Amino acid sequence: MKEDSTGILVKILLDSNFKLSLEVSPFIIGPLGIALVIYLLYKTFSSGWKLRDFEIDEAEFGIGDHKVKLKPNDTDKQIAYRIWVELSTRKIGLPIDLEDDVISDIYDSWYSFFSVTRDLIKDVPVSRFQRKDTEKIIRLSIDVLNIGLRPHLTKWQARYRRWYEAELAKSESVELEPQQIQKAYPHIEKLEADLLLVNKRLIGYRTKMYELISSVET
Question: Which of 42, 85, 138, 172 is most solvent-facing, going by the fewest CB within 10 Å?
Answer without folding.
Answer: 172
